[in-house]
Amino acid sequence: MSAFGLPFGLQRLDVIIKVLREIKAALLGKPPEEGVVPPVLTIERLNNRYKIFTLNLANVRNDEPLGLKSLLEADGVKYARFMTVLALPAAMSYKLNSNANDLTAAALGEQVTFEITEMYITNAALAGNAILWIEWFAEGP
To answer: Are 66 and 97 in the same domain?
Structure first.
C-alpha cells in the first residue's frame, strides 16, 4: 500500500488523472474540477477476416484478378494486410494492386505483409491447386 492508502499502481493512476485535470483546466482557462473522473476511452476491436483462395493451376491465367477487391469493398475496407502461400505444387506468379506492377514468383510458405487491394495471377497450364490465405481487418461485427 502507498502513503495514500492505495495500491502503488492506483496511486500512480491517481497522479496521472490529477495531472490530466490540471492540463485540461489550463487549456480551458478554468480551475481544475476536483473529484471528477475523466471519461474512459474505449476502442472497438477490429474483426479479423480472411479468405482462402484455391486456384486450379490447370487453368491458364495472365494477370487475372483474384477477386479480392470485391470482398474488401463488401467489408468496407480498402486493403488486405497479409497474404501467405499455403500450397504451391507448380509455378505461379502474381502482381499486387495493379497489373502494371512487377511480376513476383510465388514461393511455398511465402508471407507478404503489404497493403493489398487486388492480386493479379499469372500461371501456365500445370497440375495442382495453389492455395492462398489473405486476411484483413473489417470494422464492425
So the answer is: yes
Nearest CA to 115 among 87, 133, 136? 136
Domain ranges, residue 15:
1-42
Residues 91 and 107 in one domain: yes
Q: Which residue has the cell 497479409?
A: 82
Residue 32 sits in the same domain as residue 87: no
C-alpha to C-alpha distance for 88 and 132, rounded to whole angstroms: 9
Quote the pTM value: 0.66
The 10s digit of each residue's pLDDT in 7-27 is 444 456 667 777 777 777 777
